[in-house]
Protein backbone atom coordinates (compact mmCIF):
# COMPACT_ATOMS: atom_id res chain seq x y z
CA UNK A 1 0.00 0.00 0.00
CA UNK A 2 1.14 3.52 -0.64
CA UNK A 3 2.07 4.95 2.75
CA UNK A 4 0.42 8.35 2.42
CA UNK A 5 -2.89 6.77 1.43
CA UNK A 6 -2.80 4.10 4.14
CA UNK A 7 -5.13 4.52 7.06
CA UNK A 8 -5.75 2.30 10.07
CA UNK A 9 -7.01 -0.39 10.32
CA UNK A 10 -6.43 -1.22 6.64
CA UNK A 11 -2.74 -0.40 6.94
CA UNK A 12 -2.27 -2.94 9.71
CA UNK A 13 -4.47 -5.51 8.00
CA UNK A 14 -2.22 -5.56 4.94
CA UNK A 15 1.11 -5.32 6.75
CA UNK A 16 3.81 -7.94 6.40
CA UNK A 17 3.53 -8.69 10.12
CA UNK A 18 -0.21 -9.34 9.78
CA UNK A 19 0.40 -11.61 6.78
CA UNK A 20 2.88 -13.73 8.72
CA UNK A 21 0.61 -13.76 11.79
CA UNK A 22 -2.17 -15.23 9.63
CA UNK A 23 0.22 -17.75 8.11
CA UNK A 24 1.20 -18.84 11.62
CA UNK A 25 -2.45 -19.20 12.66
CA UNK A 26 -3.11 -21.43 9.66
CA UNK A 27 0.01 -23.52 10.30
CA UNK A 28 -0.91 -24.06 13.93
CA UNK A 29 -4.50 -24.98 13.04
CA UNK A 30 -3.27 -27.49 10.46
CA UNK A 31 -0.74 -28.94 12.88
CA UNK A 32 -3.44 -29.32 15.53
CA UNK A 33 -5.67 -31.15 13.04
CA UNK A 34 -2.79 -33.36 11.91
CA UNK A 35 -2.11 -34.29 15.53
CA UNK A 36 -5.77 -35.15 16.12
CA UNK A 37 -5.67 -37.39 13.04
CA UNK A 38 -2.53 -39.11 14.29
CA UNK A 39 -0.40 -37.84 11.42
CA UNK A 40 2.14 -36.26 13.78
CA UNK A 41 3.24 -37.43 17.24
CA UNK A 42 1.17 -36.44 20.26
CA UNK A 43 2.42 -33.21 21.79
CA UNK A 44 3.74 -31.79 18.53
CA UNK A 45 1.12 -29.05 18.31
CA UNK A 46 1.76 -27.84 21.85
CA UNK A 47 5.53 -27.98 21.41
CA UNK A 48 5.40 -25.91 18.23
CA UNK A 49 2.75 -23.49 19.49
CA UNK A 50 4.70 -22.75 22.64
CA UNK A 51 8.03 -22.35 20.83
CA UNK A 52 7.29 -20.24 17.78
CA UNK A 53 6.39 -16.66 17.00
CA UNK A 54 6.65 -14.44 13.97
CA UNK A 55 10.22 -13.17 13.97
CA UNK A 56 10.01 -10.61 11.18
CA UNK A 57 13.70 -9.58 11.23
CA UNK A 58 14.78 -13.24 11.01
CA UNK A 59 12.33 -13.98 8.20
CA UNK A 60 13.59 -10.97 6.27
CA UNK A 61 17.21 -12.00 6.80
CA UNK A 62 16.53 -15.50 5.49
CA UNK A 63 14.56 -14.07 2.56
CA UNK A 64 17.55 -11.91 1.68
CA UNK A 65 19.56 -15.11 1.31
CA UNK A 66 17.07 -17.42 -0.43
CA UNK A 67 14.69 -14.91 -2.08
CA UNK A 68 11.48 -16.72 -1.13
CA UNK A 69 9.07 -15.33 1.47
CA UNK A 70 7.21 -18.55 2.19
CA UNK A 71 10.27 -20.72 2.62
CA UNK A 72 11.85 -18.01 4.77
CA UNK A 73 8.80 -18.01 7.03
CA UNK A 74 8.84 -21.79 7.34
CA UNK A 75 12.58 -21.94 7.98
CA UNK A 76 12.21 -19.36 10.75
CA UNK A 77 9.51 -21.47 12.42
CA UNK A 78 11.55 -24.64 12.03
CA UNK A 79 14.54 -23.00 13.69
CA UNK A 80 12.42 -21.97 16.67
CA UNK A 81 10.54 -25.26 17.00
CA UNK A 82 13.59 -27.48 17.16
CA UNK A 83 12.87 -31.17 16.56
CA UNK A 84 9.11 -30.60 16.25
CA UNK A 85 9.81 -28.18 13.39
CA UNK A 86 10.16 -31.06 10.97
CA UNK A 87 6.36 -31.36 10.96
CA UNK A 88 5.82 -27.85 9.61
CA UNK A 89 4.64 -28.46 6.09
CA UNK A 90 5.73 -26.67 2.95
CA UNK A 91 2.96 -28.11 0.78
CA UNK A 92 0.21 -26.97 3.14
CA UNK A 93 1.59 -23.43 3.16
CA UNK A 94 1.87 -23.26 -0.57
CA UNK A 95 -1.68 -24.39 -1.18
CA UNK A 96 -3.43 -22.76 1.75
CA UNK A 97 -1.54 -19.57 2.38
CA UNK A 98 -0.62 -18.42 -1.07
CA UNK A 99 -3.96 -19.26 -2.68
CA UNK A 100 -6.46 -18.52 0.08
CA UNK A 101 -5.09 -15.69 2.28
CA UNK A 102 -7.85 -13.21 1.53
CA UNK A 103 -10.54 -15.63 2.66
CA UNK A 104 -8.76 -16.20 5.96
CA UNK A 105 -8.13 -12.48 6.37
CA UNK A 106 -11.78 -11.60 5.81
CA UNK A 107 -12.96 -14.30 8.19
CA UNK A 108 -10.65 -13.28 11.02
CA UNK A 109 -10.47 -9.50 10.67
CA UNK A 110 -14.10 -8.60 10.20
CA UNK A 111 -14.72 -7.72 13.85
Kindly summarize this structure in a few lines.
By secondary structure, the chain is an all-alpha fold. The chain is built from 7 helices and no strands.
First and last CA, distance: 22 Å
Helix content: 55-70%
The low-pLDDT segments are none
Largest sheet: none
The CATH class assignment is Mainly Alpha
**Count of extended strands:** 0
CATH superfamily: Fumarase/aspartase (N-terminal domain)
Q: The CATH topology is what?
A: Fumarase C, Chain B, domain 1
> Average pLDDT across residues?
82
> Class by helix and strand content?
mainly alpha
Which CATH architecture is right?
Answer: Orthogonal Bundle
How much of the sequence is in beta strands? under 5%
Overall 3D shape: globular
Number of helical elements:
7
Overall tally of structural domains: 1
What is the H/E string? HHHHHHH
Amino acid sequence: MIERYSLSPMKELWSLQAQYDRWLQVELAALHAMEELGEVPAGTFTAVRDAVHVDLPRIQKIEGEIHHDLLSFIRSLEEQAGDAGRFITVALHHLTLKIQPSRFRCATDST
